[in-house]
Design brief:
Protein name: DASH complex subunit DAD4
Organism: Malassezia restricta (strain ATCC 96810 / NBRC 103918 / CBS 7877) (Seborrheic dermatitis infection agent)
Main location: nucleus
Family: Belongs to the DASH complex DAD4 family.
Number of helices: 1
Oligomer: single chain
Mean pLDDT: 88
Helix content: over 70%
Largest sheet: none
Shape: rod-shaped
Keywords: Cell cycle, Cell division, Centromere, Chromosome, Cytoplasm, Cytoskeleton, Kinetochore, Microtubule, Mitosis, Nucleus
Length: 81
């Protein structure tokens, strides 16, 4: 039986594959860190959105009350010459 022919590029391919695996692991860690950062940013933005919605509600209430005060002031000035 003839001896098995060795692949002359096998060692180089193994080293390249090892480097690829290492880089993919580093990329995976970086993506995990980025995902955590995005989650923190989203939480922060959610808090800001809630405050903005509350502020808009207060603003609408103030506008409504001012309009009612102006309307009642105009009505009372009409009834009291």
């Amino acid at each position: 039986m003839p001896p098995a022919i060795e692949n002359p590029y096998e060692e180089r391919q193994a080293l390249l594959l090892e480097r690829i695996i290492k880089n993919v692991d580093l990329l995976n860690e970086a993506l995990g860190e980025m995902n955590r950062s995005v989650a923190d940013i989203n939480q922060h933005n959610q808090d800001i959105t809630i405050v903005a919605e509350m502020w808009n509600g207060y603003h609408r209430n103030v506008d409504f009350n001012l309009q009612n005060m102006e309307a009642s002031g105009a009505t009372s000035s009409l009834s009291h010459p």
